[in-house]
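User: Hey, quick favor. My workstation is busy. Could you predict this chain's structure for me?
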Amino acid sequence: NVENFCLGLVEMGFKAGDTLAIMGDPCPAWVYADIAAECAGGISYGIYPTSAAPEIKYLMENGEAEFFVAEDQEYVDKILPLVGEIPKLKKIIVSDTRALFMYNDPRIMSCQDVKDLGAQRKAREPQLFEEMVSRVKPEDTATLVYTSGTTGVPKGVMISHYNLLWGFLSQIEVYPEVFQNDKSRTVAYLPMAHIMARYQDVYFPMVGGYITHFGESPDTMAETVFEVGPTFLLGPPRIFVKFAAQLVALMENTGYIKKKAYRLAMKVGRRHIAHVWAGRVPWYWKLAYLPAYWLVFRPLLDKVGFKNIKWAMTAAAPVPPQMVALWQTWGMNLVELYGGTEFGAGTAQTTRFARPGNAGKPVPRMEYRVEADGELVVKSPGCFKGYWKNEEATRATKRDDWVYTGDSVEVLPDGNIKILDRIKDLIITAGGKNLTPSEIEKAIRGSPYISEAVVFGHGRKYPTAVIEIDFDTVSEWARAHDVVYTSYTSLTEHPDVIKLVADEVAKGNQVLARVEQVKVFRIIPKELDPEDETDPVTATRKIQRPKLYEKMKDLVESMYAHDEEARIAAEVDGVGASN
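Assistant: No problem, here it is.
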């Protein structure tokens, strides 16, 4: 598949240094196209399936792709209205051809057509593929991975073949039983425009030999996980929060006997995991935990297909410690990693059932230092080449081969690194207290009923939060408690739901210092949609804090309506306007 697709591209004029864009959900065709472009000495890059039209246009223009690979009709429909504004685009190559009869555009062709061209080229030049691969150098750019664009337009991170290989080697040193094991299996579900998905689903299996399973679509990810029974799973915290919320809701709505058994098992489980974190588990707690695990927790894990997981790893966003502790209590070994598109693997928890609240220690051959302002600066073979067509941004981030991560960290006494927040997001209250909003947000997001929490408070007397509810779990709770609603908005406005969220915020506040505690919150009346270009959320579901404030300014300001600064502002409003 890869060889024929590669030679087909070459037959149509693709050459070393050219770029190829791919858009779609995880599928084998995505993998074939990605590797094929790289084998030809070209550069592949992905576009998030949720990207809106302006972002697609920007990425096609910035990446200069002449070939666009679309998984199916959905992505053909996204690119076709833009082709008049993308003069460099030559061909739209489609994997799922069931709807191609609807189009009459000479630029559209199937993946099979490309592979047929490649097979013909191979018949004429049987050694061409191997010759092209042999000409690719380790330092050549293999792929562009665009940043999420939380602070501006996305930037293309140039990652070399050497960077990719080091990324794998660093992980097999840390987790050899996971990544260098032909009996390991996992599920592809993350958008493959994200470097985490590319590592797990494309590059690591090529060297490590484990099996990646592709489901029918990300919408059926839960069913795919249940059918496959993965032995390891890598993903952002949001995925593990969603699954945990599903199980918590299940146990809350189960029968009396099962609920009592679960609560008893949780009492045992909490004591057991506390001893695990302390480094020594007394024999009687080991004995007590066995029936809790085999009779309660393992059947619970089996309901979502997690019972075979030996290692679950989470990264790419702030990790709620309560969520990690819950999975570990249930007997699933969930650990935290830290890395970045610009520098690859950074740190990892390598101990099974590691204590939550830190991202572990640096991976082999990664040097680091912490600047006076707390910023982590790293240097390793995984550090990127630079930003595509953006030397100014490259100079700001990479200096003398050191990458300035933009992340504020704390090095703990045992050498583990705790990720605090983005430097730019740190809050200083009106009283001069320094707050880390991600720590507050993690505490609030530990609730199964809260999907997103965004904290404000810079220059204010106290922190507040704008909250997005998890519609699935809250609607399930509403049905169980006879709460009537007609829409997402009516659900968020129901007094019982507001009280539910208030109780969850209060629980989150219990693990925070007094000055960090959220004093007031508001629930967003609609779900944030990455495909809605007016919504303050990126394709990777990262919140654009300034944009969120601008869009929901009235909602945010209403939380400070009785503050003295608001009253003063009202008094002086308009002073000097006559001048």
